[in-house]
Specification:
The complex is a heterodimer of chains A (about 625) and B (about 350). Chain A is α/β, with parallel strands linked by helices and about 625 residues long. Chain A has 21 helices and 23 strands. Chain A has three domains: about 220 residues, 3-Layer(aba) Sandwich (Pyruvate-ferredoxin Oxidoreductase, domain 3), CATH 3.40.920; about 270 residues, 3-Layer(aba) Sandwich (Rossmann fold); about 110 residues, Rossmann fold (3-Layer(aba) Sandwich). In chain A, strand 10, helix 11 and strand 11 form a beta-alpha-beta unit. In chain A, helix 10 crosses helix 11, helix 10 runs parallel beside helix 15 and helix 12 runs parallel beside helix 13. Chain B has about 350 residues and is of the alpha/beta class. Classes of the chains: A alpha/beta (about 625), B alpha/beta (about 350).
């Protein structure tokens, strides 16, 4: 045995924790990524849960994973892993295709019995050869039995002892990456504060795992991952759903309008509801109601009564809400609809990610029903875009659909707690903004076409609104032909004019690039990394990434027209590319489309863009 | 006492009337109900600007346009959900829902039962004419089996809902029934419904002169109304008939109508109506009486019990948490989480 430890310096590294859905891999991954962030790494994480809550133990369908990408410039949760922790044969099998050639695999040998191998449907006795994992380094550790002996003599039953084995794995990984244990100790103490026995057990197993690595395993190098100097301030690890919830609260604070959420549980959007129901102390009214339609309808009612009203859902729920969103268009009420996109159609792939709801958001209503559509680019951008969606809804008295997706909703990264005073102000276009005489519900601002919102309960502003067409001047119901045409135009103009109030499209990279990559929403991290890597390699590629979709930023045509070669990459069959071509005449655009329910792989993107460059 | 109800009445019926021309067909029962609603609101002295009238789709759902209050004509079947949002967001408003048998019990059935179950403090005016009027004459969920309509030329092969069964089955705390043209009683019942804290369901037997004329006539026609209906009043004997000589008594588990002084029945045998009983067994039996099963149809407030309301529950939870937790800003909340500082 040797006692020298080789330390490898790396820019970034991808680690995947994988095991049975009851093995605690999500917790292990979360703790490791948080302590890495505190250590100074940039982090981006992505949990990959099975659709079943508790599939049979040890089976392929029961594998639950958590991937973390850390380093000095991190835009996404990474493609293939450098390190895999596989707590059983099923986890090894499920992840075999997501490993780099020279990666390190840590396995729990206690979980690789004949029976375990059968459950994971291995045909031979050597899982590594069978899976073609011949270039990887394997660290075989009897994690379960070491955990059991570590907890010898503790006041715990055997089941609880075995359950601590994820901490042994965490300790081992902390050693591998030179992470001191004090931060992990602190986090575990806080997490299990109500159960001192668990704190004691977890800390002991964690330390034993760390020491095991230090004392015995010398066959591999350990890593030092580059850290980065980030902005000063206080940081918190947030996923996209949490950030969305915080963004809505921030908009409520800055606008002075109470926040109301009407929602119905749906994967992967439910965490927005889970988060907002906690905020009673801030006066947030977040309610779970009988169905998706009631979710949006209670929100519309709350908007009528003066709230910043929102509803959260995913694709199937957005379909159900369509008619009511049309009512909000017609009645001209502020409303924020958050759609966390998932694999479709129908029930589809509830726990997987896609960008296939764009057309539904833009057009999924009867009649000429223009609406504002936005998309968040990353977990932390969900905060900013939820804030922006609320700002536009309240200032332009219109429904706004905010598209996020399963990847950024569940993925997390470190987020600097913002100073809300520095965010753009939100001035709701309510009757307090009306300076003329004799207010009427149909009156509009001449320039923006926005009506003056009068919340129910205000003296002097009683009025009636609804889903029927109304007279432009009086607001009374009207079936007049010319009036209807006028109102159709007004509703469209109102949305179009919002382009004057949103940020311009930014170009990442030079205007002289040979290829412009265009993306929107949650694919930002992968597209950005692909473009930067190509630029590092001397290829001239630029990126235009959209967060505002309807209306488009005013400079969209000007930016796109600068490039001869444009490729739009999206996780659908070309929904955004079709929209762009409708909005901007004469664009020659090619497409990169992938609908696998998985985030893009940077390597695939580089390959496709390089090919396009060569054409 | 509601914050929006003042002690002395300072409003008149006309104060609740909007400037819109009322477009229901001449002779439609909705006209009568609307006038009763104006009067009830004046009697309650509800402030017009503190009142929100919500509706779904259908003839009766045009009602908000005719009110000089806040009004919201929403989409088919969803009025109860919108009204729930209005009331929960702003409990100090007096919230009303105008709806019909199709809007409320077919497309909107789910929202209806859940609003009732939650006991949101809204007043539901369920105008039941047993027909789809605005789409010109299809059977509705309250049409009787065998009912012939444009969409059931050979008669329906399904049984109707009884609104009372649905409301009480959803744990309703208030159910009343009235007749569109019975102005005095309807006005009183609407006022009673408004005073009830919780979801009030008022079924109004309403006539559609065009597509389902006289559908309720076997009950409401003046020639026999006194014999075929009974107006229930809390704390009063259950008497009916033109001369109030008939009464309801218990016969085992059943309700039976008797003539006072005949077959040994005296006034002392007649049941006294208790609308406030938590147990709804007798309320259900009273609600389901009809001339078809040999008993008078019950009018008036059948059930009126107290229960926690949803909107108040939501508000109280916030108040309770705020009393224990001084954090009022997002930033303060976040700073108390697992944060780390970069210096």
């Amino acid at each position: 045995m040797q006692n020298t430890v080789k330390i490898k310096d790396v820019k970034d590294i991808v680690i995947r924790f994988s095991g049975d859905s009851g093995d605690g891999m999500q917790l292990t991954g979360t703790i490791f990524s948080n302590l890495s962030a505190i250590f100074g790494n940039q982090i981006s994480t992505f949990p990959d849960f099975p659709a079943e809550i508790r599939a049979p133990q040890g089976t392929l369908s029961g594998v639950s994973g958590f991937q973390v990408h850390l380093g000095n410039q991190i835009y996404n949760s990474g493609d293939k892993a450098d390190v895999l922790v596989a707590m059983n044969p099923a986890a090894l099998k499920v992840n075999a295709n997501f490993l780099k050639k020279d990666s390190v695999i840590i396995i729990d040998t206690d979980s690789f019995s004949k029976r375990d191998m059968e459950k994971a449907q291995f045909a031979t006795e050597d899982p590594f050869v069978e899976l073609g994992l011949t270039t990887q380094q394997i660290i075989s550790v009897p994690v379960t039995s070491l955990t059991k002996s570590s907890l010898e003599g503790m006041e715990m039953d055997m089941k609880s002892r075995i359950r601590s084995k994820n901490m042994f794995a965490l300790g081992l990984v902390c050693w591998l990456f030179n992470r001191p244990l004090d931060v992990a100790n602190h986090m575990l103490s806080a997490k299990f504060a109500k159960k001192p026995v668990l704190v004691e057990a977890n800390l002991k197993v964690l330390a034993d795992g760390f020491n095991y690595g230090q004392n015995t395993d010398t066959t591999i190098s350990s890593y030092r991952v580059e850290t980065v100097n980030v902005d000063k301030g206080y940081y918190l690890d947030v996923n996209g759903n949490t950030a969305t919830a915080y963004g809505l609260i921030a908009a409520s604070e800055n606008s002075g309008k109470p926040l109301f959420l009407g929602s119905y549980p749906i994967t992967p959007a439910t965490d927005i509801l889970h988060e907002l129901v906690k905020f009673k102390q801030l006066g947030v009214k977040a309610i779970q109601v009988e169905d998706e339609i009631a979710g949006v309808c209670t929100a519309i009612g709350a908007s009528f009564a003066g709230s910043l009203a929102a509803t959260s859902t995913s694709g199937p729920g957005l379909a159900l809400k369509g008619e009511a969103i049309g009512l909000a268009v017609m009645a001209e009420l502020p409303l924020v609809v958050v759609d966390v996109q998932r694999g479709g159609p129908s029930t589809g792939l509830p726990t997987k990610t896609e960008q296939t709801d764009l057309r539904q958001a833009l057009y999924g209503r009867n009649g000429e029903s223009p609406i504002v559509v936005m998309a968040a680019a990353s977990p932390t951008d969900c905060f900013d875009m939820a804030y922006w969606a609320s700002k536009i809804a309240l200032e332009h008295i219109t429904p706004v659909i905010l598209l996020t997706d399963g990847y950024i909703a569940n993925g997390s990264s470190a987020w600097r707690i913002p100073d809300l005073d520095k965010y753009p102000s939100i001035v709701p276009h309510d009757v307090s903004q009306y300076k003329g005489n004799e207010w009427r519900s149909a009156l509009r601002d001449d320039e923006t076409m926005v009506r003056y919102w009068a919340e129910a309960g205000l003296e002097g502003y009683t009025h009636r609104i609804g889903g029927l067409e109304k007279d432009y001047t009086t607001g009374a119901i009207s079936t007049d032909a010319a009036n209807h045409q006028k109102m159709v135009n007004v509703r469209q103009a109102k949305v179009d004019k919002i382009a004057d109030f949103i940020p311009q499209l930014e170009l990442i990279g030079g205007e002289d690039a040979d290829l412009l990559v265009v993306g929107w929403g949650g694919t930002y991290g992968h597209l950005r990394e692909a473009v930067e890597k190509m630029n590092d390699a001397g290829q001239k590629v630029a990126l235009a990434h959209f967060r505002f979709i309807s209306p488009l930023p005013k400079n969209t045509a000007a930016v796109l027209n600068k490039f001869k070669k444009i490729i739009v990459a999206e996780q659908n069959n070309g929904q955004f590319v079709g929209y762009l071509q409708e909005k901007i005449e004469g664009l020659q655009i090619s497409r990169y489309n992938k609908v696998e329910g998985q985030p893009f792989a940077v390597s695939d993107l580089i390959e496709a863009f390089t090919k396009k460059l060569g054409e | 006492m509601d914050v929006n109800v003042k002690m002395a009445s300072s409003h008149q019926a006309k104060d609740y009337k909007s400037d819109q021309y009322v477009r229901w067909c001449p002779g439609c029962g909705d006209h009568a109900l609307l006038n009763c609603l104006y009067k009830a609101m004046a009697e309650l002295d509800i402030l017009p600007h503190m009142t929100a009238v919500v509706s779904g789709i259908g003839c009766s759902s045009r009602l908000p346009y005719y009110m000089n209050t806040y009004g919201f004509h929403t989409i088919h079947g969803r009025g109860a959900a919108v009204a729930t949002g209005v009331k929960t967001a702003k409990p100090e408003l007096s919230v009303w829902l105008a709806t019909g048998d199709g809007d409320c019990l077919a497309i909107g059935g789910n929202h209806f039962i859940h609003a009732v179950r939650r006991n949101v403090d809204i007043n539901i005016l369920l105008l039941n004419n047993k027909i789809y009027g605005l789409t010109k004459g299809q059977f509705s969920p309250t049409s009787d089996r065998g009912f012939v309509s444009k969409s059931s030329p050979y008669g329906t092969v399904e049984d109707p809902f009884h609104p009372v069964e649905l409301a009480l089955g959803a744990r309703g705390t208030f159910f009343a029934r009235c007749i569109d043209v019975d102005l005095a009683n309807t006005t009183e019942i609407l006022a009673h419904a408004a005073r009830h804290k919780g979801t009030s369901v008022v079924e109004i037997l309403q006539n559609c002169v065009i597509f389902n004329d006289a559908i309720h006539d076997n009950i409401v026609d003046k020639a026999w109304r006194a014999e075929r209906t009974i107006l229930l009043k809390h704390g009063e004997k259950m008497l009916f008939g033109a001369n109030k000589d008939k009464g309801l008594v218990m016969d085992g588990w059943q309700i039976k109508d008797v003539i006072i002084g005949q077959n040994g029945f005296t006034i002392d045998d007649v049941l006294v109506h208790d609308a406030t009983m938590q147990d709804d067994t007798l309320h259900m039996k009273l609600g389901l009486m009809s001339p078809e099963n040999g008993l008078p149809l019950a009018l008036g407030v059948i059930r009126d019990v107290e229960g926690p309301t949803y909107d108040q529950g939501v508000a109280d939870q916030i108040k309770d948490v705020q009393a224990k937790n001084p954090v009022r800003k997002l930033r303060d909340y976040l700073m108390a989480k697992d944060v780390w500082e970069v210096k």
